[in-house]
Amino acid sequence: MEPSQIKRKAEQLPARPGVYLFKNAKGTVIYVGQSANLRKRVAGYFRLTSRRSSKTSKLVAEISGFDFTATPTQLAALKLERQLIKEHQPKYNKVRLTPQFILERKKQILDAATKVFAAKGFDRATIADVARAAGIAEGSIYNYFKNKDDLLVSIPRQAIQPPLESVVAMVRAAADTPIPPEQMLPIAAKNMEAVFKQNGHIFRILFSALPTMSPSAREQYLNRVIFYVWDILESYFRELIEKGILRRELHPAILTRAFVGMFIPFLLLEQILGLKSPAGFDYEQIIAENITVFLRGALAEPDASSERQPKHVQKIAVE
Fold it and tell me: Considering only Cβ atoms within 10 Å of each terminal Cβ, which end of the chain, N or C, has fewer?
């Protein structure tokens, strides 16, 4: 088919959602795409423009014809596009998915989702909004994330993973001798503060979306964020218990929740709600005092001289 014929055919396409398949002279599918408006998208390839990338120019030069399928909705077009890409494996749809590329693309999408959710609110934001902010095709997002809920619960994991991995690296480097809790727990507490301080906008988005989050999304959030953090601390406390550094009757899961719970109220007030502590505590003081209470308890140590004094016991009459 001549280029002029291809252009005329493209201009006669329906202005509705659908999928298009570009073919070369041998009839091989070389690219599959989708759009909310088939006519506008496909015809756009054949307009002379200096904005084309070298990859797009090369693609257009190879096109000898195309097929299309109209769909009732763009979501249906997205699903059909993925199906056809898997079926035909077109060369212009292929990207070398190295581990580094996947990490960078996920970060690109999550950074865009964070900005969109913060600006529009989670409920009003759409996958299309995120795709525009990320500068990629909407269908590409579904190669990495299942849906909008999946994006939401993946955002905090991206934020907390680097500082927690540094803690894990320290624990592993200690080998058979665990890091003393007096040294390790302040580091863990400071990391918690850093995560909330640097990513307060992320946690505000998450907390505002929790009431409308689906049960499956809540479960994903627990597994990817909460349990991920707890598992690291639990492993550390379990080792301290096994080595006899902490009392053997203590349960590492309860210790973990108690430790984290000592700091969360301060972090929520200051970093999420933007309220300063009325007592004016700084975080260094909070860390020092909380860890002292966690490891030593809140009861005053009995005075040695008072221990030698006879104890006065008040008798209570029972009628």
Answer: C
